[in-house]
UniProtKB/TrEMBL annotation:
Entry GO MF terms: lyase activity
Record's keyword terms, sorted: Lyase
Species the sequence originates in: Postia placenta MAD-698-R-SB12
The protein's name in its UniProt record: Polysaccharide lyase family 14 protein
Pfam families, per database record: Polysacc_lyase_14
Domain Polysaccharide lyase per the UniProt entry, residue ranges: 83-306
InterPro entries registered for this protein in UniProt: Polysacc_lyase_14
UniProt key word rRNA processing: no
Length: 328
C-alpha cells in the first residue's frame, strides 16, 4: 500500500486512500461518526471503549479542555470533554518510585465487536488486514517538553504476553510488539517501536528519515523529527498497522499527523506465529525515560479525545463479506 493522502472524503483521524474498505469502525468523534455510518459513535468512557489493565495512574475525570489557539483547524468543536493527563513537577516514568506520579496508563481493546473482529481475522490466515487507531492530543499552551515523553500507540502479540512489551523487556519479545509514539525536546515527534528483535526489523526502522536511533536495551526511536507538536492546539494522530503474514517480512506501520503520512515503514515482522494479533491501543503518557533529568520541569497538562479505531481491508479482497463495510 502506498502512503495515503488526505482528500475530500477523509478525516484527520482516518486519512485513508479511497480504495480502502472500512469493515468496522468506532469513534468518540462526532465529526468522524457523521462521515459514514460504518463508524459507530461511543461516548468517551472506560466501559464503552473496553479499557483494561488500568494502572494506578488513572486519568482524572473528564474535563473541559481549554480552547485551541487555532480556531479554524478541523476538529470537533462540539466535543466539550477530554481525558486530562496531569504531569506534576518532577514526575517521570512510573518505574521511578522516588518521583511523583504523572500522566496515565491503560490498554484499550475497543468495543466488543471491534475487539472480536481483530482477533478472529488476524488468526484466520492470509489476506490483507490493516487496523487504524487514532486520537487527538493537545499539550497546554507553553508546554515545556524537557527531554521527552511517551504517547499512545497500537500494541499486540500473543495473549497476555502483549502486555508490558516496553521498558527494556527481554522475555517473549518475539510474541509482542508495542508502537507508542514519543515527543522529544522542542516537541519533535517520533515512533518508539518495540518489535520482535531481528536484523531486518532494525534495519528497516533505522532507515526511516529524518533520524532514527537504537538503544539496544529499549525501543527503536524511528523517524525522530518527522513532525513537530505545537503546544496549545489539537493534533490528530492516526496509526495504521498491517500484520505480517507468518513467515514473511510484509508487515507495515504508518503514522499520520493531521492527515499527512509522516512515517511509513514496510517489510516488518510483527509476529512469528498465527496467534499474534493486534490487540488495541496502549493509551499511556508520561515524561521519560526514568532518570531525574527526564522529569517534567513544572506542573502541566495534556488532553486526549477523539479515540477511534477501524478495521480495513482492500477493496479487491472478498474475505469476510458478511462484515459491513463502506468506502472512504
Amino acid at each position: 500500500m502506498e502512503p495515503s493522502t488526505t482528500g475530500d472524503s477523509t478525516h484527520p483521524l482516518f486519512p485513508l486512500h479511497a480504495l480502502v474498505h472500512v469493515m468496522y469502525g468506532f469513534t468518540t468523534s462526532t465529526s468522524l461518526a457523521s462521515l459514514s455510518d460504518v463508524f459507530t459513535y461511543y461516548p468517551l468512557n472506560y466501559e464503552a471503549l473496553g479499557l483494561h489493565a488500568i494502572s494506578k495512574r488513572m486519568p482524572r475525570a473528564l474535563v473541559a479542555p481549554p480552547l485551541s489557539k487555532l480556531q479554524d483547524q478541523l476538529t470537533d468543536s462540539s466535543i466539550a470533554l477530554a481525558w486530562e493527563a496531569f504531569f506534576p513537577r518532577g514526575s517521570v516514568n512510573p518505574s521511578n518510585k522516588n518521583a511523583p506520579i504523572g500522566g496515565f496508563g491503560f490498554y484499550l481493546h475497543g468495543p466488543p465487536e471491534f475487539a472480536t473482529i481483530i482477533k478472529d481475522i488476524n488468526t484466520e490466515g492470509p489476506g490483507v488486514l490493516d487496523v487504524v487507531m487514532s486520537y487527538e492530543v493537545m499539550f497546554e499552551d507553553g508546554f515545556e517538553w524537557a527531554l521527552g515523553g511517551k504517547l499512545p500507540g497500537i500494541y499486540g502479540g500473543v495473549g497476555d504476553k502483549a502486555f508490558g512489551c516496553t521498558g527494556g523487556r527481554k522475555q517473549d519479545r518475539c510474541q509482542c510488539f508495542n508502537l507508542r509514539l514519543m515527543w522529544r525536546a522542542s516537541g519533535l515527534g517520533e515512533l518508539y517501536a518495540y518489535v520482535p528483535p531481528s536484523a531486518s526489523n532494525s534495519e528497516r526502522l533505522l532507515a526511516t528519515p529524518p533520524d532514527s536511533l537504537h538503544n539496544r536495551d529499549f525501543g527503536i526511536s524511528t523517524g525522530r523529527g518527522a513532525w513537530m507538536f505545537e503546544a496549545g492546539r489539537w493534533t490528530a494522530i492516526a496509526q495504521r498497522v498491517r500484520m505480517n503474514t507468518v513467515g514473511k517480512e510484509d508487515g507495515e506501520v504508518e503514522v499520520f499527523v493531521d492527515g499527512k503520512s509522516v512515517i511509513h515503514v514496510c517489510g516488518l515482522v510483527l509476529r512469528t506465529e498465527p496467534e499474534g494479533h493486534i490487540q488495541g491501543l496502549h493509551l499511556e503518557t508520561f515524561f521519560g525515560g526514568a532518570k531525574p533529568e527526564w522529569a517534567s520541569p513544572r506542573a502541566q497538562s495534556a488532553w486526549f479525545r477523539g479515540i477511534s479505531g477501524a478495521i480495513l481491508r482492500s477493496a479487491t479482497d472478498s474475505h469476510n463479506k458478511n462484515v459491513r463495510h463502506d468506502e472512504l
